[in-house]
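tool_call predict_complex ligand=FE2/S2 (inorganic) cluster
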Amino acid sequence: MKFALKVWRQHDANAAGSFVDYEIDGITADMSFLEMIDALNEKLLLKGEDPITFEHDCREGICGSCGFLINGLAHGGQKATTVCQLAMRFFKDGDTIVLEPWRAAAFPIVRDLMVDRSAFDRIIQSGGYISVPTGGAPEASAILVGKDKADVAFDAAACIGCGACVAACPNTSAMLFTAAKMTHLNSLPQGQPQRDARTLGMITTMEQEGFGNCTNHGECEMVCPKEIPLEFIGKMNRDLIRAAMNGQTEANVRVDANGKMVD
Amino acid sequence: MLETNIPSGPIEQKWENCRSHMMLVNPANRRKHKVIVVGSGLAGAAAAATLGQQGYPVHNFTFHDSPRRAHSIAAQGGINAAKNYRNDGDSIFRLFYDTVKGGDFRAREANVYRLAEISVNIIDQCVAQGVPFAREYGGLLDTRSFGGVQVQRTFYARGQTGQQLLLGAYQALEEQIAAGTVTMHTRCEMLDVVMVDGQARGIITRDLRTGAVQAHTADVVILATGGYGNVFYLSTNAMNSNTTAIWRAHKRGAFFGNPCFTQIHPTCIPRSSEHQSKLTLMSESLRNDGRVWVPKKKGETRKANQIPEDERDYFLERRYPSFGNLVPRDVASRAAKEVCDEGYGIGPNGTPGGLGVYLDFGAAIKRLGLEAIKERYGNLFEIYERITGEDAYKEPMRIYPAVHYTMGGLWVDYNLMTTIPGLFAGGEANFSDHGANRLGASALMQGLADGYFVLPATVPNYIASNKFKPVSETDAEFVQALEENKKWLQSLFDIKGERTPDSFHKQLGDIMWEYCGMARNAEGLTKAIKEIKDLKAEFWKNLKLIGKGEELNQSLEKANRIADFLELGILMCTDALERGESCGGHFRTESQTAEGEAMRNDEQFAYVSAWQWQGPDQPEKLFKDPLTFEHVHLTQRSYK
Ligand SMILES: Cc1cc2nc3c(=O)[nH]c(=O)nc-3n(C[C@H](O)[C@H](O)[C@H](O)COP(=O)(O)OP(=O)(O)OC[C@H]3O[C@@H](n4cnc5c(N)ncnc54)[C@H](O)[C@@H]3O)c2cc1C
Ligand code: FES
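tool_result ok
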């Protein structure tokens, strides 16, 4: 198969970027999308041109490294699929394919299709954990978790942190990502002691990092490779009300420059 | 010469005694001792978070953009622990016994016993962190049996156990980062260890965004940088997994243990084209219900479903009647290779003579119903279809073995310290615990045992029992190491040849797979060593790179890693050649029984091989770390 590619090329965060056209031939249906770019990059390198920079690692849809827009759709728009899992058989011979990085103020471009998603780590730093110093844990069977709760927690914990939700959202909101971690931890008995502080801390950092608001478009859910449901955002909002009712208003939670809660 | 520092006393008390007598560091003094942890997988993240909690200033490095992306994230099947929640006869001793035997008697008893002991604490720790393990309706933890073990000791989180365990460790790490005890260095690749007065006192790194090469000082350096299976180019490892950190440490004096011990996993999706960049693992749990077979007739052109029962060779069930499809990984892999080498294999769309065997769920679907199979393996069937375009509910899957895990790694003593004082190694990066073959669901256990429990006890002991003269990045040792590494990177650009880094990597992988893969012999290994040496020479004459070192340059990252893989490949073949016996995943065709099974030679080879670097292009020197077995009787493994 043969394809025409339009790829966003940008040397670094401060450089100007633009689309560059490439042609690639000899692609077979069983190749993955990233193997197609590998093949193009081999050609570019041999010609003395800079290969296209993109992030990837596991190539099986679990590490969350890969991700860019393909024809405007995060991860290419196949249901429950990351770019690395996308096979070329989903494309038609002769297609023109447009590749761009995630576009969001909170995800500055590093180079070409690679962006900086460290804002996600900082949201986790603000409460996306349960504090258990190593060695201080009770016997595992002492904590009972009903299967229904365990299943919800798992559905939420399946998030791979790829950032597709942000890229797909017209407001570049990180609500789905944040709500997923919150739903995971807030659903479990182990997560209850820090529940309100977690909710407020993570939401505060999410806002400080420059992600937009949620206006219920639902695009995030559509592109999420792990099918994290929109209803978790509802849960997050309910948790926020709960935290406020419990007296943990945003005003009395102080957050330092790193987004860490200080009590 | 090799001091294992195994504590004295009965095996059940060694670890406890050892911990009770360790030297401690006063809490107020801990902040004076900087610790570097390289790697943020299970072993690295757990160690960094725990040492941070204890009050040490920890600097954690990863080449990933976030610690959460380490290769541990990809583990599917589960994690073992001797909890005996099922009351099915499991115990610490049995887990210990199974691990030593499964490793074909090439692991240290004392280390393995400690691992089995700690396994129970790991589950407690992870549950408290909120790791969503599978649960029963009553709210208790569910377990399953895995990899042919007769007890149900494997804890799991759907097919994403590694992901959930890593996220637990990652979250603990992020908490410490927020608390200021851990400083995280993402997109930062370690290039070298810096030695001062014979101790590891820091590292050299390259910032992958800017290309800046920098020095970092510390009192202790821990390497938790994962395995080196990608020396084979195609493997189930993540694309960026590499050997650079441990290889550079090796070149600075750390001995390399059992480099040739590689695990080849039987149930992977077969290779489809030469463009293929990696291989995908299908969880071993599939063998609980799937039956492995090939057509009895060579050159069979009928589709699988049209081949009648009596014309199928269920070769695992035939050869190993008591374990059948559940024989250990090495045995299953070798059997599949043999039938394919004899010409019974199946290629894409059922073409005869290919590299693949059927894994058939037809009987299981009949027995249990389609829904039950969907419930158990739905996500795996989906992965299979996505990659191959075939529906495995309708026709059998095709599988073939692939490189999966490296049991070898830096040689460490009981305290997980390498032969370089102050340099420790944890997780897949060290050689310990799994001998010549790793049991399923034991790597996650070992990574977390090392990271949460062993290193946080042994590293403080080292700090408390040593003196540290103040060092700075401007000291001669650091400046010199920095210059050497800058020069090394520049020398890759200076080659100005015609071949891409990947083309060398692929060729190396082909040599390794052919001669140092599932079956090895003296002739092939000798040939491989020569071929790799030639390839290495060509690499240094004909590598093509563009751009510069002082920018984000993914081709340079690859070339830098491949240079090390080339040297490691030579050592792996040398080690495989030296070990003239078959054991675990290491099958020497010269050493087999009349029935074609692996034959160990305990008189000659009951040792860990520990190799010492002797300088560029010099043969390495072998040291033997003898293995003695007091608790598990040396027997030839038999799964008949
Ligand atoms: C597909 C697959 C499935 C598996 N399933 C299971 C299973 O079900 N059960 C089981 O027990 N085991 C399983 N394993 C094995 C297990 O996942 C690994 O052995 C284990 O996770 C390794 O953990 P680690 O912490 O040692 O290293 P890794 O998770 O590989 O982490 C290495 C870290 O080191 C960093 N690093 C490496 N080199 C450098 C450098 N030079 N500079 C800076 N940073 C560096 C990386 O960025 C990364 O953070 C599986 C493996 C694979 C491939
Ligand atoms: S490369 Fe890991 S999710 Fe795509």
